[in-house]
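Please check this chain.
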Amino acid sequence: MEKKVKSEIIYDGKIIKVYKDQVECPNKRLATREIVRHHGGVGILAVVDDCILLVKQFRYAYNKDTLEIPAGKLELGEEAGPAGKRELEEETGYSCKSMELINEIYPSTGYCDEVIHLYEAKGLFKVENPLEGDEDEFIDVISMPIDEAYKKIMNNEIHDSKTIIAIMKAYNDKYIK
C-alpha cells in the first residue's frame, strides 16, 4: 500500500480537482501521483420493449457524437439513486418505479477517483411533463434493440465504458437465464 507524504492541489475546477501527491511506495521509495478528484456519476440501464434507451450527444473531449446510456455527474454529497432517476427523466422522458444497483464502476483507475453508480431502472413509464435537462446538453433519445446495441459494441461503434457494461448486462439478461 502507498502512503501519502505530501499533497498539493494544482487545479480547482467546478467538476474536478487535480492533486499532485507524493507517496511512499511499499519499497520505501518516493513517487509522484497526479490524481483527478471527481464527485462521481450515475448511469441508468433502461429497457423498454426489448430496446435500450440511449442518448446521442456531442462530446467535446472526443470531438464527436457518442451513444450512451442516460447518465450524469453527482453533486457533492448527492445520493446516486435519486440522481439517477432525475437523469433518466431529464434525458429520456421516462421514470421508473424502482432502481437496482448493477455495479459501481471505476472508469480510470490510474489517475482518477471517479465512481460511476450503474443502475437498472425497473417498472419504466413515460412521464407526461418530464424534468428539463441542462441548458448546455443537446440530446437525441434513441430506442435501440438490445441485439443491435450489442452488435454496435462488437463493431467498435459504442465506446463509452458504462454503456458497454449496461448493454452487456441487458444482452446477458436476455439470453442467459
Observations:
- The helical segments are 80-92, 146-154, 161-175.
- The first helix runs from residue 80 to 92.
- The CA atoms of residues 36 and 112 lie 5 Å apart.
